[in-house]
Design goal:
Layout (H helix, E strand, L loop, with lengths): L3 E8 L2 E6 H31 L8 H14 L5 H23 L6 H7 L4 H22 L2 H19 L4 H22 L4 H5 L2 H9 L2
Antiparallel strand pairs: 1-2
Helix pairs in contact: 1-2, 1-7, 2-3, 3-5, 5-6, 6-7
């Protein structure tokens, strides 16, 4: 089967084509982002409506799906891409270390009562914030800038003890909801917009 689509694009550094493999990668990125948004939102709802017992379970698909999203995301500057992946890896190790350290049912209460633990999982959310910033920078989606601002404010406030826990929770829930909205709206976009200008990628690769 022909691997390239009929549409050819004129990039900054020449013409390029969007392949079927490119389209599949975009679909996988969007699906991973959706799973991340669903897991983040469901985990918070579980905590608020049912209680902290087993609410930590949602952190597993949330963690894995963000890692996959950062694998398939298209970012021109490779250093920035690798930096987000590095933050995700460090944060993921921290999350799974906390899950495996003992009584996992106490993980949520530990995060609430011991703000210093934010330093362990913080890199994961830094990677999520970076993804949100990329989406806003490229597409000016309002939900992306909301995610980029509210998530670090909520976690940073909890670490430093600036805002009340109620306000922190509201900001965290809004962040999760905005991520979910961002992920859902991605499916209405043309694949080429997520792929970006492939001629720029080729130029940076050949001159890097």
């Amino acid at each position: 089967m022909e691997n390239t689509l009929a549409i050819e694009f004129e990039g900054v550094y020449g013409k390029y084509k969007i392949t079927r493999d490119d389209e599949k990668e975009v679909k996988k990125y969007r699906l991973a982002l959706l799973i991340c948004g669903i897991s983040f939102t469901a985990g918070l709802l579980h905590w608020l409506l049912i209680g902290e017992s087993f609410a930590w379970v949602w952190m597993v698909p949330m963690c894995i799906s963000l890692g996959l999203a950062l694998k398939w995301i298209h970012i021109y500057v490779q250093f920035l891409h690798r930096t987000l992946q590095f933050f995700w890896a460090i944060g993921a190790i921290g999350i799974f270390a906390l899950i495996l350290k003992g009584n996992s049912t106490e993980l949520i209460s530990d995060l609430v009562s011991k703000p210093i633990l934010i330093l362990i999982i913080g890199p994961y959310f830094a990677a999520m914030t970076g993804l949100g910033f990329k989406e806003f920078f490229c597409f000016q989606r309002p939900e992306a800038i909301g995610l980029t601002l509210l998530l670090p404010i909520s976690l940073g406030s909890h670490l430093l003890g600036i805002l009340s826990q109620e306000i922190e929770m509201i900001l965290l829930c809004l962040s999760a909801l905005l991520l979910l909205i961002l992920a859902i709206r991605k499916f209405g976009m043309d694949a080429a917009s997520d792929i970006g200008d492939k001629s720029v990628f080729e130029y940076l690769r050949s001159n890097g």
